[in-house]
Amino acid sequence: MNWKTIFKSFKNRDMQRRLLTVLGIIIAYRLLAHVPVPIAEPTQLREVINGVIGGTDFGGFLNLLSGGALASFSIVLVGLTPFITASIISQLLTKAIPRLEELNKDGESGRRKINQWTRLATVPLAIVQSIAFIFILRQTVLAGNTTVLADPTALEWIVSVGTMTAGAVLLMWLGELITEQGVGNGISLLIFAGIISQLPSMLSSFGTALFDTSKGALNVFNWFTVPVNPTIFWVVLALLLVSLMLLYFLVKINEAQRVITINYAKRVHGNSSYGGVKSILPVKLIAAGVIPVIFAVAFLSLPAFIGQVLKASGNEAYAALANNLITWFQAPNPGAFTGSEWQAFIYPATYFVLVLVFTYFYTGIVFNSSEISENLQKQGGFIEGVRPGKQTEKYLSGTMNRLLLFGSVVLGFIAVTPFIIEYFLAQFAGITNTNLSIGGTGLLIVVSVGLESLRQINSRALMVTYDDYDR
Q1: Other CB atoms within 10 A of residue 103 CB
Q2: 368 vs 244: CA distance, rounded Å
Q3: Half-sphere exposure of residue 432, counting CA atoms within 13 Å on the CB side?
């Protein structure tokens, strides 16, 4: 990153407008996250949600990804999950249906049509998810012997579902507005903002435990006593060191790339000649960025969500299936990591596999070796020792597959590292209430989105300060 250029670009009016627009949209999103759904008395409803749902692993995970919208039962509670799901479906169909693949290759007009269909598919998905959220909340609240949502009328159902669906569509629109500014991916930045807003409260729980001296204080070489819990102090210190190492490793992995040299044949046209130069084609180790992690988390939340719906239905025929889905597909309690309860390992293992799958899947979309090979051939470019056309396509595919094999495994390992740390803390330190799996996923998304946004801001800064280099 060229920080000097980035800071210099802040003087540019266009850059200021873009950054202020993004900041304003993020502030608007955070304000929307505190606007409750008009279904009950807000204060009382918030207390019930915090007591009944907010304390569970599944609830805490959804609350983190929604930026606190679950705890407030906000109009943006459904969040970006319907749009992410619709995007996954449309991208799968684009690869599976030749007509859609041709449309995608038609250029900007074809991609615009596919994007419009994705937006339209988001609406019914948001409606279904809104109904499910209200249904789960109502059944869970009734189980807690409170009458906050005892009998919503048909009008309340329509207003609530309509409000939450509108909130999901509004977030989708806000995300696209951010993307248009060219300083980051809008969907990723909204998730980034939601997670950042929740990290302080998660860190405060560590602070509370750290300064709890009821079980003794830290004695430093018998010279003086520090008013902190000694066990928690060493745990926090170890976690900070591990976190710094992971952050450094994650930054290196995100920035790593393979540089392929492209040669352009010299051509003569009339009295002038052109070509005969060399260029580079940088191939990133993880070309998909943070998208595989976001997709994996969104996909993993579906089985537990379906389990909650089945459980809330009260149908005894689905009770066992519902309990299994909830138990298997939610961030496990560290205390469950024992040899006898193997189910606790299903979530981390599935998470690892999904990160690998979505890394390959999304990279196949953003890096099209056939299209790159075709463009190089049209422009007279070639890789030294590789014939243009099919051989170039095969070479690029092989190079990307080798990079992906290492990159996806490393990304998956980083994603499940918090689960591994939780296991050792539970087994050897007896600490089980850390929620590192939630915080670790959030931190992974925050770092990756931050790096990608900085990269785009750096590119934009080079554009707006380009004229200064001629002076």
Answers
A1: 18
A2: 34
A3: 10
pLDDT tens digits, one per residue of 129-170: 888 777 766 665 544 445 555 566 778 778 888 888 998 899
Burial class (CB in 10 A: 0-12, 13-18, 19+), 289: buried
For residue 157, the surrounding DSSP H or E stretch is helix 154-180
Distance CA 188, CA 133 (A): 23
Residue 156: both structure tokens together? 């309340």
Q: Is 260 helix (H, G, I), strand (E, B) or coil?
A: strand
* Contact residues for 5 (Cβ-Cβ < 8 A; gap 6+): 458, 461, 462, 465
Q: If you count DSSP H runs as helices and E runs as strands, how many of each does the chain have, helices first?
A: 17, 7
Output 389-396 pairs: Cβ under 8 A, ≥24 positions apart: 393/369, 396/260, 396/283, 396/369, 396/372
Q: What is the pLDDT of residues 255-275, one digit of tens each?
A: 788 888 888 776 666 666 555
Condensed to tens digits (0 to 9), the pLDDT of residues 72-120 reads 677 887 888 888 888 878 877 887 788 887 887 777 788 888 888 989 9
Long-range pairs for 336-345: beta carbons < 8 A, 24 or more residues apart: 337/422, 337/423, 337/426, 337/427
Q: Which residue has the tokens 């619709």?
A: 86
CB-CB contact of 152 with 160 (8 Å): yes
**Tokens representing 403?**
């990079």
Per the CB < 8 A criterion, the answer to whether 184 and 178 are in contact is: yes
* DSSP string of 55-108, one letter each residue: TSHHHHHHHHHTTTHHHHTBTTSSTTHHHHHHHHHHHHHHHH-HHHHHHHHT-H
Over the stretch 354-378, which tens digit does the pLDDT of each residue have?
888 888 888 877 777 888 888 888 8
Is residue 78 within 8 A of residue 126, CB to CB? The reply is yes
Residues 50-55: contacts with CB under 8 Å, at least 24 apart: 51/144, 52/140, 52/141, 52/143, 52/144, 53/137, 53/140
Average pLDDT over residues 198-205: 70
Structure tokens at 119: 């937006």
Burial group, residue 331, by CB count within 10 angstroms (0-12, 13-18, 19+): buried
Question: If you compute the radius of gyration of the chain from its CA atoms, what whole number of angstroms results?
Answer: 25
